[in-house]
Fold:
Amino acid sequence: MKRDTEKMYAAMNPWRLFFTVALPGMISMFAMSIYSIIEGIFIGKKLGEGAFAAVNIAMPLVMINFSLADLVGVGASVPISIALGKQDHKTANNVFSCSVIMIFVTSVMMGATMFLAAEPLCRMMGADDALLETSVRYLRTVALCSPLSTIFFAMDNYLRISGYVKTSMAINIGSNIATIGLLSFFLLVVKMDVVGSALATSISMSLCSIVAMIPFIRGKTLLRFTKPTFTKRMLKEIAVCGSPVFLNNVAGRVTSILINISLMTLGARVFGENGGTTAVAVYAVLMYASDLCWPLLYGISDSLSPAIGYNWGAESYDRVKRIVKCAYIGTATIGLVSTAFLFFLPNVVASWFVSAEDVLLLRESTRAIRLFCFAYLFRWFAVTTQGFLSAIEKPILATIMSVATALVFPVIILGALWKLGLDGIWLNFVGVNFLAAVLGIFLLLYIRKEVKRRAVSRAEASLETLGAKDR
Structure:
């Protein structure tokens, strides 16, 4: 498996590599998002608007918890891939082993914090008295399972780095089957509320985290557990490489908090008393609708990152460019299809999460989706560019793009479009992704110069080596 995986990254035709790695990666990431979509359908249809809004209030905190695991998981994946490209398996295995320990420790700490401080944290998210109790119970349930559930995404990354792409896909599909089964049991049979929803997703992810570890425990993968050796250099490298994704997630959650607060204000102004709950529920529908599309973009970018990092480490710059070209073509196709799907079928998508009796919520959700969908005309470019920058160990550039996309641009546009009311918030996503695409173009032009310089330097070094051999 070790030689086959490295051969695939180093020699396989880029388009064949794309379909071998990215296609299962897309299915895997979409499967990972299905649990969120199914959860939204169950909550919206079974528990109603209030529960829908309460879960959306708590969700930024849940995602910040996962973002800490991503900080280590993604941050470790980049140096692991580059080390493998340099044939330095000892370093790759040590980074892998240390990262698993770090994720478990940070998840325990974050889970304890969320459980003990759930009430003040939910109030900070914008929960009023009507939503507070439900939000707190949902958050505390997620916190209890944090030590095992949060490592799921990192183990999925490590499986794909080791070439276990189909295994990763199978585990993600299994996770969603388990989630659907548990959701049905807890909400329909036991008649639980949002606690049942939180339990269903947390239990399924925890079980699949354990299953994902089995190939590594058995020593059958490219990456192996070894006696961990923590060094300042390794910790710094993980922190630096993981910071773009981490800051993007945290900044995005800060933006969500600001948007939730804005929605409570604008919703009351537009819909009257309790209108804030309706506006937050519409925003929740948008986020679930987005889960139908963005995982496909991220799945392509994330799945090809190990191959890009491997070839960058091996100094195969022409091959890096060919693989990245495939990634952009693939995500552009998904972006266009996603835009068309959401634009022409907004009522269908909204009806998956909203009961027909909730006429106002259904109408406003449909309108919001039709405005929001144009973000995917640009989002594909931003996602692929950020993934590329992270894969080649350009954390500063990737961080600039992630923070600008997740916080700076949304806040600027939120103020600029405030007079448009709720429509301004739905259009916020379009403006943010347009600006992110423009920024991405400038960053790629900068990187293009460095790639050319590296390629020339390598060619000159090769000529000097050949000359020395001739002498």
About this structure: The CA atoms of residues 255 and 431 lie 14 Å apart. Residues 2-470 form one domain. DSSP finds 19 helices and no strands in the chain.
